[in-house]
Amino acid sequence: MDPRMTPPDALALAMTEGVSWRSASPPWRTSRRRSKLDAAQDLRGCRLAGTFSLISLGCRVNYADGQAVRRQLEEAGLAYRPMQGRTEADVYVVNTCTVTAQADFDARAWIRRVKSWNPSAFVLATGCYAQMAAKQLRAEGADLVVGARETGRLAEVLSGLLARPGALETQAACPPTRHRGEACGYHGPILSARSRTLQGASPAASTAAPRAWPRMGFGAAYGAAPTDVQDRARPVLKVHDGCDQCCSFCVIPFTRGRSRSLPPAEAVAAYRALVRGGAREVVLSGVHLAAYGRDLDPPVPFSRLLETLCAEDDGVRLRLSSLDPSALTDDLLQVVAGSKKICPHFHVAVQSADPEVLRIMRRPYTVEAMRARISALCERMPSLNLGADVLVGFPGETEDAFERTLRFIEFFPFTYLHVFPYSPRPHTRASRLPDHVGEAAKRRRAGRLLDLSRTRRDKFLAGHVGGVFEAIAEAPSHRDPGEWTATTRDYVRMVFRADGRPRGTVVRLRADAIEGSRLRGMLIGAGEGGEAASGTERPHAMS
User: Fold this and answer.
1) How many Å apart are CA 12 and CA 445, to the nearest integer?
2) Which residue from 24, 109, 173, 188 has the least number of CB within 10 angstroms?
3) DSSP string covering 488-519, please?
C-alpha cells in the first residue's frame, strides 16, 4: 500500500470506482491509485444545495456529534431546518443510538417517519446504530449509512456520492478487535449507500481548499460545535469519546472505539468559542469522563481540565453530564466544592448495587467504593440534585439482588432515576450469559424504581415552590409560543410566560406550582423576591 494512503483514502477510492471495500483485490493496490485518489479529492470541493433537517437520538455525546454534523452540512451549502413536528427537507439526517433495543427501534422508526414526510428526500443515517447495523437501516429506507467512525467526513462522502450518481454501492466494515480477552471495538468505517440523486445538487467546485482527512483520533466530528444561543442556550462540549472499559452489557466500545480525549488546550479553546457565541451554560460531556486524559501524553486527569475551565472568569456555569462513581475522586470533589461555576447537579451511572451483579457487569468499582464516593459528593454539595442510571433485569439478577439495589437507591437522596430494562446487545459478553430475566420481572422491577423516582421528584420539586431562582431560558413551547422553558442551576425545568424571545438569557423566576415533572414559574424583576436561589437545602437520607 502507498504509505501516504490512509484507510479513508482507500475508502474514497472505493467510492469513485464503485467497488466493495471488502473486495479480494483492494482498490488501493491498483497501479492507477494516485489518479483515482486525485479524483476522490476533487469531490471534496463539491457544493450542495437544498435543505436538511437533523434528529439526534440518545445521549448528550450523540447530540454533540449531531451538532458537528450540522456544521459540516451547512459549510457544504445545505440550509438547516429545525426538526419541529412534520418538517419537510431535501435531506434528513438521523443520528442514531444503539444503547438499548428500544433505541434501535426508535432509529428505524425515525427513518420510516421522515420518508413518509417526503418520499423523494435523501435520508442519511449515522451514529452508533449505523456503525452496527447498516443493512437494517438500508432496509428501512436510508439512502446513505455512515457509521460513527466516519462521521467526521460525512459531508465529503455525501458530496462525492451526489456529484457522481451511481458511483457508490459499497458496505465496508472491519471485524472487532480483541481487548482484555473480549471483542471490543470496530477499527474501520461503516459505509453503505444506495445510488440516489438529489434535486439541486451541484458538482461545481468550491473555492475553499480541500481539507485533510481526519486523523483516527478525536477527529472533525469529535470536537465541539461552536454555536450561539440561537442554536442551543446550553450547548454541549464533548471532551471524550470511546471507551476501553468494555462492561459486559455495553455495545459502545464496538461503535465508538478506544478511549480518546480532546487535549486541554483544544477543550479550553472550544469552551471559549461557545462563550463568545453567547452560551450562559456549557455542558461537559463524554462517553466515560472518568477516563478523560489517560490517552494523552502526558496524561491529564479530568479534575485538572475541570479546574482549568473553572478558572475562566466569565460568569458562565458548567454542568457535568453522566459520571461513573469512579470519576468522583478526591481531586474532582475538591474542585467541585471550591467552584461556584459548577452546577449542583450530578448524574451517576450506578447500574446496580449488588456485588455479584456488578462483578458480572465488569463495572470498575465495588458497592462499598460507590457508597463512599456518593456519600462524599453529597457531603460536599448539600443542595445537590442527584440522579442515577439503573439497569434492571441483568442476566443472573435475582430478586434479592434487585432488593439490594433498591435499598441502596432509597438510602441516598436520589431525586430522579433513569431506569433501563436490560436488553441484549450484539457482540457483548452479557448477551451470551445464562439466567436471563423474564420480561415480566424486568417490567415489575423497573416499575418499582420508577415509582420511587416519581415520589422523590415530587418531593424535590415541592421544596422549590415559593422560591426565586435564576434559570436559563431555552426554547418556546410547541403548544404555546408565548410560553418558554428554562433550567435552573440544580436542573429543575420551569415553564413561564414571556414577551419577546428571551432564549439564552438568565431570567429570575418565582416557582408557583408543580406541573408534572416541572415547575410553573412567574417572571419577576431584578429587584423582586429577594435573593435568587439556586437550590433548596434539604437533609440527606443517610444515617
Assistant:
1) 49
2) 24
3) ETT--EEEEE-SS--TT-EEEEEEEEEETTEE
